[in-house]
Amino acid sequence: MAVVPFKMNRQSKRLATVTVKTTAVVLCLLGIAFASVAPLCAQDSAARTDSLALQPVTAHLDYREINYSVINWGLPLVTRSSAFKKEPALSGSKVIRGTLQLGSSKNEEMGFAWDRSAGKLYLDLNRNLDLTDDPAGVLSCGSGFNDSFQFFANVRLPFKTPAGNRPMLADLNFNHYGRPTCSAAMRSFWQGKVTLRGEEWEVGLLANPLDQRASLESGNLLLRPWSDRNKPFSLYGGALDAVPFSHNLFVGNQAYQVSCTNEVQGDIVKVQMQFTVQHPKLGELKITGDFIQRAMLEGGPYLVVLDKPAAVIKVPIGRYSQPKVCLKKGDLQAYLDGQTQAAAGHITVSEAVPALLTVGGPLTNSVSVSREGRKLALNYRLLGAGGAYQMVSQDRSHPPEFAVYQGDKKVGSGKFEFG
Questions:
Q1: Phi first, then psi: what are they for 100, rounded to 5°?
Q2: Which structural domain, as residue segments, surrounds residue 134?
């Protein structure tokens, strides 16, 4: 390609000069415009980020049945003397008829006939006073039963919930020691997954259908790392995997407002749980002990859940009752239920003055000795910061042992009994 030389005359030079100067002015003006627009863009971006931060995080919970019980509920029981409209052939005189209260209203009663001699239970699941047309309501108790206590497994009780009638899996325990009673060991709950600040959690709802509020939020909240989702849990024993449900929750160093609603799609029912970020004022909390797996503060503006907390943390300001604490070292766990600390009063967290939380390990084996006539009573206690702890999932087949020495001579030994 040939290069053609280009010559400017005086007029062309003047035009070129003007053009260059004009271009410089335009670029200068554009620079001013860019400078003024950039902060506006940054403000818009920050506003969008804040808006997204305020959007609730949603977990969708599915109904799940498990092979262990998580909580026991006593079912109100009323006996009746007359027979039902239709009954199967019953064995004889040791038959107890009545109704179980499966909710807070009269129309949530369910009839039953407990044939103690035959070890059979007949439930009126469809509530039509006919005990012969409910195949799933005919149950046999396990082996080795007697006529005063019988256990019936895998019963799907028809509870009325805000989303309609929903079965809940339970094991029923019937007793007759003076008067008949019934308790339900629940084996089902609503389970889901939620990611909060980059951490994956298993969330579960253990609603109490017997609560008069008839609300999804009247029970307990399972809250633990998603990696633990296949491990058994219980509301008993002190591990604190499940906590009382609270609309105001502080977990993972963040405050949330929590709400639950039913999500019904045809015959499929889920529970929708939403976590909306809150920004309460925070105060400093100093923790004295070690090995804390989880601590829980109740009674304040938020239910505060602390997992493996540092020695100094910040929590919502307010007045809290004494904590419940679970400690863990290796495979051993111990807990403090807060009841032994009742005399210590409350914990007040403020913006001005750090609050002190005296809980945690290390734990020390201790024995108190008192005289009872010619005998000595020995009481075992596991002591740590804040009071006496108890073992989680204690193996009662291997109780603590003791030995008594006079000088170097062993003069007695034995095992402690639970109680």
A1: -105, 135
A2: 71-186
